[in-house]
Amino acid sequence: MSDHSSSPPPPDLPLFTIGTGSPAMTAVAPNHFLALPRPNTLLGHALPVGVPDTSTLAAHDFDVDTRTGFLPPQVPLTRLPVRWERWEEILDDAGRRRLQLGDKVGISAAEQESSATWRASISSLPVLPIDDLEKSEYLLRRAHHVLSFILHLFIHSLPPSAPILIPAPLTIPLLQVSAELHLPPTNNYTDNVLYNWKHKVAPHSSEALPTLDNLACQTLFSNTPDEEAFYLASTRIELRGVEALELMRSSMDELFHSDTLAERRVTSYLQTMATVIRELRTLLLSVREGCNPDIFYNQIRPWFKGADSDPSGRPWVFEGLEDHPELAEPIELSGPSAGQSPLVHALDVFLGVDRYSHTSTSTGARASTTASAHAAEGNSRAAFLERMQIYMSRHHRTFLRHLSQNQRPLRDFVERSKNTGLLEAYNECVKALKEFRDSHMIVVALYIIGPAKKAREQTEARARAAQETQGAAADAHALKGTGGTNLVKFLKGVRDRTAGALFTDVHGRAF
Questions:
Q1: Residue 199: beta bridge partners?
Q2: What residue numbers bound the domain in which 406 lies?
Q3: How far is CA 310 from CA 102, 155, 236, 366, 379, in A?
């Protein structure tokens, strides 16, 4: 047994080498990609004084901060420079008007007129160029945030029978910004969680990092506290998950050595990680404290829907593309989804659970004899979870890809070990992750299945006609997530297959 505490980290695991500077807005390390210019010349006057630009350079860096994880350590930009102020004004005006959903039951003529006036103001805009904007990723991220919120407000304030024709003043800059960021043009988890926070109470220091108890949102669709509570539950999960990321890094350093001491240390790290994951579960369920299910289902969730969730199947037509042959017609048009969380994907990949939750067949000790019968469903789950990574920051996608290509996977290390304590600690992490997904099912039942049943009953009552129904259970299975999935069936499949990653003894009992 050798003490390798002073050994250098292995050269093939440079996953968490960033964000070690002071937490000030200007304090990221000079060689960190957040402080480097994009390939074009830096537009100095476009950034607030003292704020570093971001770039796509430094391939070894993944925009994962050791203090805030996948959240940026600085408050995301709250306003674009004056050259693009008209976009900010359009978004502000939507908030002042308190735009209503176009399919709102009992929507008044005044509300419809207000929405139409707001949409007309977008059509009358000039097509603002993104020259200079494209030189700063810091600005591009804010631009995507603003324009994607405007897109969803525009589409979902339309009458339900109206065609979805997105005007060129919105289409062109949104698609250009999205192309620069390698993101779909829709509003996503990055827009409404990772880059949508600010300090609830201004801290005494401009260098203050985000904390669980001092968070607020920058932008909301419905202007309700319930929507803010919904987003912040995820924001807090990402922030609390920083410790899990640090435990991943420490564990991966030990996997390089793979000796008896490493087994003891990894066991300790996994025991702590299981505790952290269970705290993430508590944070997930805390959404119930501030978000009313009926308000969420009827006033908030409809704004999230992508083209693949439109009940009428209306296509989204992006106008103006004929004048911009360099822009492609968008294909990926799903809305924001919890499946776009980089933290949850990282946990899956690190634990090796993605082999079970993301694939069509189980190959571990608990593989089902009926696995082949569910191959098609498994392939669908895998395709969805992989597709959701398209909606993440490309730096986070790169991080996950690098993590998945680790030459010394944790699960293989645990499987080779004869250490019962290590096997038990690993299983505790898998159980905790399965419990997290159990809680996701609880949230779905409370916020989607229940209100959907109630909404159906109210529709039937208003129609005053007997309609044949399939019952609550069948209806629940037909519900779609904002990512376009058959919601309940999908979540149950991922949850159940996560449990398939548990190690068992010769009698099939989990360690």
A1: 215
A2: 236-294+338-499
A3: 13, 10, 30, 38, 24
Per DSSP, the residues of 46-105 read GS-TTPPP--S--TT--S-BTTTBTS-SSPPP-S--GGGHHHHHHHHHHHHHT---TT-T
Q: 197 forms bridges with which residues in the sheet?
A: 217
Residue 247, phi then psi, degrees to nearest 5 = -65, -35
The reply to whether 38 falls in a domain is no
Q: Which of 14-28, 427-441, 470-484 has the lowest mean pLDDT?
A: 14-28
- Give the count of domains, the chain: 1
Sequence-separated contacts (24+) of 288-293 with Cβ below 8 Å: 288/443, 288/446, 289/229, 290/225, 290/226, 290/228, 290/229, 290/230, 290/232, 291/226, 291/227, 291/229, 291/230, 291/233, 291/447, 292/226, 293/446, 293/447, 293/450, 293/451
pLDDT value for 46 = 39
Q: Amino acid identity of 274?
A: A
**């990092």: which residue's tokens?**
209
Phi then psi dihedrals of residue 171, to 5 deg: -55, -55
Q: Could you tell me if residue 274 is inside a domain?
A: yes
Any domain includes 27:
no
Give a yes or no: residue 377 inside a domain: yes
Residue pLDDT, tens place only, 261-271? 999 999 999 99
Q: What's the CA gap between 487 and 198, in Å, rounded?
A: 31
Distances (CA, A) of 302 to 199, 263, 382: 27, 48, 25
Q: Where are the beta strands (DSSP E) in 356-507?
A: none
Alpha-carbon span 336 to 505, nearest angstrom: 40
Residue the block writes with tokens 């002071």: 22
How many whole angstroms separate alpha carbon 347 and alpha carbon 429?
9
CATH of residue 266's domain is 1.20.58.480
Supply the DSSP symbol for 131.
T
Q: Measured in whole angstroms, how far is the alpha carbon of residue 463 from the centre of its chain?
A: 38
What is the residue type of 152? Answer: H
Q: Which residues, 6 or more positions from 184, have their beta carbon under 8 angstroms from its beta carbon? A: 178, 330, 332, 333, 334, 390, 391
pLDDT score of 48 = 41
- Give all strands (DSSP E) within 140-247, no chain letters: 164-166, 197-199, 215-217
Task: Identify the pLDDT of residue 508.
Answer: 54
Per-residue pLDDT for 21 more than 90?
no
Query: Token pair for residue 11?
Result: 């050269």
- Each residue of 73-94: pLDDT tens digit? 999 999 999 999 999 999 999 9
pLDDT bracket for residue 492 (50, 70, 90): confident
